[in-house]
Amino acid sequence: MTLFPGITKFLHGGDYSPEQWPPRQWLEDIGKMPEARADTLTLGIFAWSALEPADGVYELGWMGEVLDALAERGRHAILATPSAAQPAWMSRAHPEILRAPEGGKRNRHGMRMNFCISSDYYRRKCAAINQALALRFGSHPALIAWHISNEFSQPCYCPACEEAFRAWLQQRYGSLDALNRRWSTAFWSHTYSAWEQIEAPGADGEMSCEALWINWKRFASDQFASFIRNEAGPLRKHSPSVPITTNLMGTHEPIDYWRLAAELDFVSMDAYPAFDARPEMVDAGIEHSFVYDLMRSFKRDRPWVLMETTPSSANWMPFMKLKRPGVHRLAALQSIAHGSDAVLYFQWRQGLGGREKFHGAVLDHTGSSATRVFAETADVGQALERIDFLQGSVPVAEAAVIYDWEVRWAIGASCGPARDHKDYLPTCLAHYRPLWEHGISADVIQSTEDFSPYRLLIAPMLYLLRPGVAERLEHFVQEGGTLVGTYWSGIADEDDRLFSTPFPGPLRGVFGLENEETDILYPDESVPVAAREGNALGLRGPWSASTFCAQIRSHGADILARYDGEFYAGSPALTRHTAGRGEAYYIGFRSGPDFLGEFYGKLCARLDLPRAVPVDLPAGVTARIRKTSETTVLFLLNFSAERREIPWAMAGSVDALTGETAGRSVVIPPHSSRVLRWPAEA
Ligand code: GLA
Ligand code: ZN
To answer: Is the CB of 356 under 6 A from ligand 1?
Structure first.
């Protein structure tokens, strides 16, 4: 589905701040867009003091001029609401709008995202300026989308937020008795006898009640969602046909983005991958594929938008290493391969002053287009035009990895079992990696999503079980799905209270086992694991277990591998349980790519999961398919520093960027990309 009515190309462009430049500059900067095959500018993100220089005094004319100039040239605008940075006069007159970080002491004016998300006054001022913008520009021909605020990131801990938290808790629990029970407050005499006693968590106060911490994060996420709803209200009313987004930041820990995505018409995100031409660049490539798949999974029926990235380097990085030739195109095509319908930058033109004056931009600080960065950007613009027909299509996946914010919070909040090595997110990435290496498309979902679109479901460290999840996993397997789970799963309920049955609690049935204890190893220790002769997957091993070694007792599960050391030598380390028409694998130990590579390689082959190309990919390379009913497009992305060759090419395929007929193999230069296309029916 097309995100922007009437637009049939990928968007290319970026943030532009006319308020930082004299008006005579605007036309010149906009005039350089065609040369880079750019069509879209995002305006007004940090322009509140220019749009409302004094309380209630709106000066929108200049924005109108810029929008008119874009429309006259057939270009588009994404218009931001300015709430990311309130004017100084507002903080002065209403200090209660300032954000209070953990500890509850309000900040002074400055920086950005420095406002309270619960403040009535701030919400009213946001709604008022949004209404003014929507009334004036809501049906402007240049306008294609609304961009609410910018990168919501940290909650506010002020008294107004605490009060809203208490109301939220009353709604959720009904009675204080229920809350006390479910939060285990009898521990350390933490029983509350009045709602007013409940404070926000913090290092100077309550940090020993995990349920408080997790629920505070749930509340904060809901409060951001309601902040967005407040901002969206006037936009939806006065500009009803223009879609709304806000820019997310991947797996950003403090906010459950599923709750924000529900408020948006389309999802967008900002990505600044460290594609620095070092060996770690492969890891960064995998990580970005994962977050892009997450973005796509928020709304599986439509593309998403890469709202910001840098055409060169970002000034907040410790080292502003230049992107090597070709790397920018690799990065841009990676987002498209994963379902983005845009490549937009921070920023179109580098500023002369302010904290971001050294940040990369398409036009440098002199405004010149005769630069290497501009040429590489124009090259991306040209590449996008050649595959524009893909716009609106969505890559599909038959596998999914569960990455769940609530699980992450709960694992993080608990004291134990491996203080600095719990590593929930890295574990999700480690399980995603083998799919990436095989060119197998995967969604990244939360545990409450519908599992029915998938044949393979990977649920690493599913420590916290939200209501109904265990039952739905069981149903998924009964109906023929394949589930993979690991150690440290099925431990606690949504208030982080341990299940009173043996672990993995309500998941014992589906995995056919019990996990009595978990041995935690020091970083320099490991335990060998040996495959069992004749195991169902044909695994060979041996491998080594690190950090987590679950002690498993099978209740009906087949044993595929056993520990081969320690006092538990001979006991199960990897099991498979058949339930109904499907099967559930339980990996009892933490492992490196040696095991996960072999395990998922065999499992995916057994399930015959579609790979983008039917041959093994060289190291550091992944492949993705995006297609329309007429044309299939193959993206080959090489994050390694080596020239890679794939001894395969679809008969009749052509290089989508050059039009040349593909040979019998495809060569991908270091840190580079190739795109092939062929007729869909071929
Ligand atoms: C974020 C912000 C932008 C800008 C860039 C710099 O993505 O949204 O305003 O600060 O970072 O990389
Ligand atoms: Zn607040």
So the answer is: yes
